Amino acid sequence: MKSPLIPTTAGLILLSGPALADLEYTLGSGATVTFYGQLNPAIISVDDGRDTETNLLDNDLSSSRVGLRYAAAFGDSIFRFRLETGLGLPNSTEVSQAGSDYSRFTRDDIRHFDFSLEGNWGRVSLGQGSMAADGVAEVDLSYVGTALYSYTADSNASFLFRDGFDVLSGPAIADTTDNFDGSRRGRIRYDSPDISGFTFSASAGENILDQEDEGEYYDVGVFYNATIGGGAELSAGLAYQRRDLNTADRSDIVASASVLLQNGLGFTVATGDRDDDAGSDPRYYYAKVSYEADWLAMGKTGFGLHYWDGSDFNVDGSDSDVWGIGVVQEVSRLNTDLYLTYQEYDYSDGTGDFQDNSTIVLGALWTF
Question: Which CATH number fits domain 9-367: 2.60.120.10, 2.40.160.10, 1.10.10.10, 3.40.50.300?
């Protein structure tokens, strides 16, 4: 089955033409307005052990979106506003063996409606936007991180595992793998200025886009960036996040780190541990080795191999494993990254072993 609602990957690249000029405008007051966005169509083929389903979809790995940023001086500080929304295209999380359930555009597609004030004392943000832990599980300096990173269920989240009798009796893939990364909420947030490479953040908020979510969310986090060893880049993050919901409190400790050597070799790791009053207490470990080089005139090439291992996802006593390989090719003239990934998913619990799921993704991420 193929969706007629978005262009093919190759067609998108041809229609995009040369890279667009920066869409930044300076107003008479000196304030700036910047428009930006991206499209990310992908051909996704999912094999559940018996059947294979192939679709052309918007890849939830980094969904298609548009936005604007406004910045203006405010005394010795800078006032900023950011508006960003998804486009509501047929999404890779909305397809399974049972068919498709496209939501089109909903309020959940609103990613940012965010005001902030920034000075040498740090930054205060208010509105719909990133909590302090957003991105803490996905610190990744590799170029292949565009397509291969610590969250592994973007392309096949709703597909069910098939048991040994070919029955779709297993859980959805998204219930068996996660990285516990932070969220976007209606929140107030503070970020410290850079302190010897460290930035400290704290936030508190609610899910203002979902009226059925009565939880209160609290995050604290710290991020670190540095150049070490004569030119190697190092980035890391650590966060604690908590959701209070009457009888169903939940808390996570999440961390990740990435190093990129001058020769193009990179290493990325992540881990997370969840304490959930409403269910099991899962944990995971993640590792990736990557390499990147400027072999082609069109732009940088990145390769990666990664492995994710989790326990107690979905139910106590379960085991989940994901491994995958990927390549990303930059086409700098078109502001496009072409990518190809293969990932294999294994899950077992007290009811038995399930057939492996394998997923191939061929996509193009075009930004402007």
Answer: 2.40.160.10
Q: Summarize pLDDT for 85-121 with one digit per residue, the tens.
A: 999 999 999 999 999 999 999 999 999 999 999 999 9
Name the residue with tokens 């200025």.
193
CA separation for the pair 218, 263 (Å, rounded): 40
Nearest residue to 181 (alpha-carbon basis) of 135, 227, 225: 135
User: What does the alpha-carbon distance between residue 117 and residue 126 come to, in Å, rounded to a whole number?
Assistant: 9
Q: The pTM is what?
A: 0.92
For tokens 């506003």, name the residue.
Answer: 81
Question: Residue 317 pLDDT > 50, yes or no?
Answer: yes
Tokens linked to 279? 């269910």
User: 110 with 186: CB under 8 angstroms?
Assistant: no
Integer-rounded Cα Rg, in Å, for the chain is 21
